[in-house]
Design brief:
Elements lengths: L3 H18 L5 H7 L4 H14 L6
Length: 57
């Protein structure tokens, strides 16, 4: 089961980075934000993509 709060925090960081820099953060940037190893940043990104937020189907 995916933690909805974790998804929300990850999504917020990604969107905030888009606004600040105009670029998507790399998964290592996500890991750094959450004080985690790079593999954990990649896992957070994949969990967010798998959640298909806003998807109609």
């Amino acid at each position: 089961m995916v933690d909805r709060l974790e998804l929300d925090r990850t999504h917020h960081f990604i969107m905030s980075t888009f606004v600040k820099t105009g670029l998507a953060p790399h998964y290592t940037d996500i890991a750094r934000e959450f004080d985690a190893y790079p593999v954990e940043g990649k896992r957070k990104l994949h969990a967010l993509m798998d959640a298909k937020l806003g998807s109609c189907g």
